[in-house]
UniProtKB/TrEMBL annotation:
Its cofactor is Mg(2+). Residues 1-81 form the STAS domain. This is Haloacid dehalogenase-like hydrolase domain-containing protein 2. It comes from Nematostella vectensis. PANTHER family: 4-NITROPHENYLPHOSPHATASE-RELATED, HALOACID DEHALOGENASE-LIKE HYDROLASE DOMAIN-CONTAINING PROTEIN 2. CDD domains: HAD_PPase (cd07509).
């Protein structure tokens, strides 16, 4: 059966690369995907480094990706902070903070949390705790529980955001995946309706479940943080469950060819 596919969203870490290593066949897969002519965006919750550093990393390991093709949860967080004119306490790594250049952090009235191993210590978390008790807003760039690093699975920022929520009774506002607004912003850029878009990722909750809740088709790849049986956690079956990014691209090509008949 033909499926309407007019736009593709692709996760980065765990789907096409892990840190400085390319996931096998991913460069070939991206070339094949570009040959379809479908609008494309790379959507990522990566918050440990700035968008520029991420792009440089991807280019260095062999990917042909343009800066305006990357839509990150950091981008969404910066937009939110600017719109509300917030002065954030940034629980971010130094490199990631560069994306917030020009935003005042004096006398903070909000806490923004991303993946920041250097900040997840008692002193810094207690500072955030006190700010929230004084009425500050809690903004989670995302709440990923864990992710895949070259040395194995490691904690994401989600557990630390949850700790602040528990301690302060303040509910975090999440801006990255799996939020529907995040996906909507990306689709607006490529002028694609949700029902005609597909999301490829290794995270069953934030990539696939999040996309499907927003009306987007989801393809789960068995790379990165994927664990056996993850697909069974979905509230509705994925559009596809594939071994890797290349297999996911081939599934898309198959359906686009059918729709053209």
């Amino acid at each position: 059966m033909a499926a309407c596919i007019r736009g593709v969203l692709v996760d980065l870490s765990g789907t096409i690369h892990i840190e400085n290593s390319v996931i096998p066949r991913s460069i070939e897969a991206l070339k094949k995907l570009r040959q379809t002519g479908l609008p494309l965006r790379f959507v990522t919750n990566t918050t440990k480094e700035s968008k520029l550093s991420l792009l440089q990393r991807l280019t260095k390991i062999g990917f042909d990706i343009k800066a305006d093709e990357i839509f990150s949860s950091l981008t969404a967080a910066v937009r939110l902070v600017r719109t509300r004119e917030l002065r954030p306490l940034l629980l971010l790594q130094p490199d990631a903070k560069t994306d917030f250049a020009g935003i005042s952090t004096d006398n903070p009235n909000a806490v923004v949390v991303g993946l920041a191993p250097d900040c997840f210590n008692y002193e810094t978390l207690n500072k955030a705790f006190r700010l929230l008790l004084d009425g500050g807003q809690l903004i989670a760039i995302h709440k990923v529980q864990y992710y895949k690093r070259s040395d194995g699975l490691v904690l994401g920022p989600g557990p630390f955001v949850s700790a602040l929520e528990y301690a302060t009774d303040v509910q975090a506002e999440v801006v990255g995946k799996p939020q529907a607004l995040f996906f909507k912003q990306v689709l607006t850029e490529i002028k694609c309706d949700p029902e005609c878009a597909v999301m490829i990722g290794d995270d069953v909750r934030n990539d696939v479940e999040g996309a499907q809740a927003a009306g987007i088709k989801g393809i789960l790849v068995k790379t990165g943080k994927y664990r056996h049986g993850d697909e069974s956690k979905l509230s509705q079956p994925a559009f596809g469950v594939c071994q890797d990014f290349l297999e996911a691209v081939e599934l898309i090509i198959k359906h686009t060819k059918v729709s053209k008949r």
